[in-house]
Amino acid sequence: MSMQNTPSSAFVGASWLALMVGVLMYLIGLWNANMALNEKGYYLTLLMYGLFAAVSLQKSVRDRMEGTPVTSMYYGLCWVSVIAVASLLAVGLWNATMASSEKGFYAMSFVLSLFAAVTVQKNVRDVAGAGAAAALDQ
After folding, report:
1. Structural domain boundaries enclosing 51
2. Are the CB atoms for 50 and 86 separated by under 8 Å?
3. Overall number of domains in the chain
4. Which one of 10, 66, 67, 110 has the largest count of C-beta atoms within 10 Å of its C-beta?
5. Considering the entire predicted model, what is its pTM?
6. How many whole angstroms from its chain centre is CA 8?
7. Where are the transmembrane segments (predicted)?
8. Does the residue 94 lie in any domain?
């Protein structure tokens, strides 16, 4: 792996910051929300499931691009999971009895969190790959 494929420290830091801000704001919103505990649990579960599904999808897509075997079943499940969690969030927010601005807040912090998680995972993999390549060069 060449140095060009290694993300800069600024990009790595910005990715981690975006992940922390997205997740933290989502969780603060849930903490302060005027909703039943079971509703808070629903939205918390969606965030955790969404983060896992997005990272898993990114990894399986990249594995396939690099020639690492990924079964079609797992690849399909990753796509189904991301679509399912996005759909569940959309349906939950559509039916929620909260202000439109609050719905938008949850949607945007959720999307930011998923995007940042994918970026952080990519950066971690790129840095690890660069470290392995550097070790082989020595």
Report:
1. 37-129
2. yes
3. 1
4. 110
5. 0.86
6. 20
7. 9-29, 41-61, 73-97, 103-120
8. yes
Asked, for residue 25, whether it belongs to a domain, the answer is no
- For residue 99, tell me if it sits in a domain: yes
- Burial class from Cβ neighbours inside 10 Å (0-12, 13-18, 19+) for residue 125 reads middle
The answer to whether the Cα torsion of 30, 24, 124, 112 is positive or negative is positive
Residues 6+ apart with CB under 8 A from 64: 70, 75
CA distance 33 to 48: 18
How far is Cα 71 from Cα 25, in angstroms, rounded to an integer?
35
User: pLDDT for 70-85, tens place per residue?
Assistant: 999 999 999 999 999 9
Reported as a single tens digit per residue, the pLDDT across 10-43 is: 999 999 999 999 999 999 999 999 999 999 999 9
Q: Which residue do the tokens 């922390």 mark?
A: 20
